[in-house]
């Protein structure tokens, strides 16, 4: 939820005491410290695919760009509770650096989308936002990719119409789910707060493991089009990670412990993921086609399984090759030493090997 706020984030707690609370957001998700929870089931979305006849309001509120969502959009999670969507908004950086709010193992991504919902047991978001179980936000990390994301283009193509603070325009309905990752089953979950004043600590956060790719031009358009307070370019509208104060982060999947596993390419279009899966490696981020879809029959499990089988065979072959090479090298060294002893003389100068400098190597 984005409200009007003072520009100095350090002063937030003076007018909004919750901003200095112990359950603040965003956070840095340390993957090896997360706890796997089998109770966390895939997120279920309903009513997200809107017809073009549905007109949505897009507004520049001076701090971000907000897309109002109709009440027909709902989500349900593992607790069986239903949540109604209210709006979505974005956080970004600038050409000088990335601007996601959540970070993963210290890494900040180019941008972040938040889809805000409230618990339907309450009459409105204004009533729900002060209740401990009142809000639920779906968050996805955005990063630059090689192709334009058509789902995001539904929003980005209208940014120039809302370039000034207070401007609004209408956007034809589209599939809002296309703004989120294709894989809604792998995510992190923790209890936190709104990331802007009043910073109410009433948010159940879902941060998806799979990222969403936008083209570099789309990222730059987000960073360079909108203006906020005092006609200043609206950039770096993210809050820094907050202290955990003993909170734990749950994961809906088993996180690999140990060295980082590289992403598995999927038709050359692998979406990088913040975290590798304990069973599926970094392939949790499936290759993204147009709109964030994954090509049929090219899932990460298939790629990773074949990679492991081929890897076992290659490991044996390289081991044998290494042993043969090492033996040949030892024989060669023995012959060279014998030859040197025969040719060496007392007045022959000894040459000490000196490594080449960086400049020499660069030539």
From TrEMBL:
Documented EC number(s): 4.2.1.1
Uppermost EC category: lyase
Tagged with keyword Ligase: no
Alphabetical list of SUPFAM superfamilies matching this protein: Carbonic anhydrase (SSF51069)
Sequence ranges assigned to domain Alpha-carbonic anhydrase in this UniProt record: 1-253
Annotated keywords: Glycoprotein, Lyase, Membrane, Metal-binding, Transmembrane, Transmembrane helix, Zinc
Gene3D superfamilies: Alpha carbonic anhydrase
Positions of region (Disordered): 261-304
Cofactor needs: Zn(2+)
GO cellular component, one term: plasma membrane
TM regions (residue ranges): 313-333
Gly residues compositional bias, start-end: 284-294
Domain of life: Eukaryota
GO MF assignments: carbonate dehydratase activity; zinc ion binding
A Pfam family recorded for this sequence: Carb_anhydrase
Catalytic activity: hydrogencarbonate + H(+) = CO2 + H2O
Biological role stated in the UniProt entry: Reversible hydration of carbon dioxide.
Family as reported in the entry's similarity comment: Belongs to the alpha-carbonic anhydrase family.
Protein name: Carbonic anhydrase
């Amino acid at each position: 939820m984005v409200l009007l706020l003072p520009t100095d984030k350090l002063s937030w707690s003076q007018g909004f005491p919750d901003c200095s609370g112990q359950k603040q957001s965003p956070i840095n998700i340390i993957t090896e410290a997360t706890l796997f929870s089998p109770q966390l089931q895939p997120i279920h979305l309903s009513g997200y695919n809107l017809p073009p006849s549905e007109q949505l309001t897009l507004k520049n509120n001076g701090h971000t760009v907000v897309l109002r969502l109709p009440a027909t959009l709902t989500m349900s999670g593992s607790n069986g509770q239903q949540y109604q969507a209210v709006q979505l908004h974005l956080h970004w950086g600038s050409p000088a650096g990335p601007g996601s709010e959540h970070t993963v193992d210290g890494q900040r991504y180019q941008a972040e989308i938040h889809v805000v919902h409230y618990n339907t047991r309450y009459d409105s978001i204004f009533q729900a936002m002060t209740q401990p179980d009142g809000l639920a936000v779906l968050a996805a990390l955005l990063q630059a990719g090689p192709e334009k994301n058509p789902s995001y283009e539904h929003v980005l193509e209208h940014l120039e119409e809302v370039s000034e603070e207070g401007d609004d325009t209408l956007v034809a309905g589209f599939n809002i789910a296309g703004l989120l990752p294709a894989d809604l089953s792998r995510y992190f979950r923790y209890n936190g707060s709104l990331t802007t004043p009043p910073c109410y600590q009433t948010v159940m956060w879902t941060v998806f493991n799979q990222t969403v790719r936008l083209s570099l031009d789309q990222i730059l358009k987000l960073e360079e089009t909108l203006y906020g307070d005092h006609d200043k370019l609206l950039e770096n509208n993210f809050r820094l990670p907050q202290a955990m104060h003993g909170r734990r982060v749950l994961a809906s999947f088993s996180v690999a412990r140990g060295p980082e596993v590289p992403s598995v390419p999927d038709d050359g279009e692998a979406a990088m993921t913040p975290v590798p899966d304990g069973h599926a490696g970094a392939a949790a981020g499936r290759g993204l086609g147009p709109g964030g879809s994954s090509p049929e029959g090219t899932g990460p499990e298939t790629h990773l399984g074949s990679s492991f089988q081929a890897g076992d065979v290659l490991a044996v072959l390289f081991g044998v090759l290494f042993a043969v090479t090492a033996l040949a090298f030892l024989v060669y060294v023995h012959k060279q030493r014998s030859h040197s002893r025969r040719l060496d003389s007392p007045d022959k100068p000894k040459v000490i090997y000196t490594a080449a400098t960086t400049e020499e190597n660069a030539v």
